[in-house]
Amino acid sequence: MAKKTDLSQLVKQYCVENGKRFRLRDIDPANSGPFDEDFKDDAERILSEGREQLAELQEKLYAQDRWAVLLIFQAMDAAGKDGTIKHVMSGINPQGCHVTSFKAPSAEELDHDFLWRTNKALPERGRIGIFNRSYYEEVLVVRVHQEFLAGQHLPNKLVSKKIWSERFADINAMERYLARNGIAICKFFLHVSKKEQKKRFLARLDEPAKNWKFSMKDVQERAHWDKYMHAYDDMIRNTASPHAPWYVVPADHKWFSRLVVSQAIIQTLKSLDLAFPKLTTEQRKELEAARIALR
Ligand code: ATP
Ligand code: MG
Fold it and tell me: What is the pTM of this model?
């Protein structure tokens, strides 16, 4: 069985704080660290303990009301974003946590700068905000399908070859700003292989309970796989930082990716100085007075 210390070491392996030497091809989506399939049951148990730990940490985050936490999930289709969010976060008080899914932008959203819609959904102090897709789509799907840029109504002279590096710079500046305002950021790329994605799409066709998840559009996007991998690689290289690291999580084994994500969030929360607020002498006196009044 893995000791807690092993798990924190494990999480570090997948954490990118400086992207300079990062290469996506160095990370095998089928990797499951030191564990094999036999570890699956232990992983489920650690995940369940992790849920309890997260619930306690989140309560302190909420009570202290100083930090906010932003968790960003990016991945190819069927990599398991939805399932990971569900399994990792299910023990948390729904009042302290908010999930926002970002789909193709609406006409109103396209009439604004590209960070507008995500800014509106940022978590307030004491809360955990989860972005299921995010402003990173602006350097992923929009980069792979550059025709989407035309729909963004940008002035012509601002659309040049430099646009992707400019977007990286803008995202980095914004994340630094958020970090300096007490928003702890954790970004996850669930790295699934093309082969495993095919298997999961076929399961969506074969199993009636999964039929609703199938989309022909997802299958069409597979044709652009290499372009997506290049875009992810470049994105991580340019936007990983100590205050907003990318966790590149092997996602062919769901039990493993959920374990890594859960431990990474726990470690992020533990790194904050979370504590229940201490009462002042005045407040203690008030409580005493209330006790007497109630009796
Ligand atoms: P699921 O398939 O599990 O329901 P999903 O996140 O894939 O979840 P979909 O409705 O299938 O949700 O897809 C959302 C689509 O919106 C994705 O193809 C994504 O690339 C696209 N999208 C998100 N943000 C942008 C953006 N800024 N510009 C263009 N397309 C975007
Ligand atoms: Mg989809």
Answer: 0.95
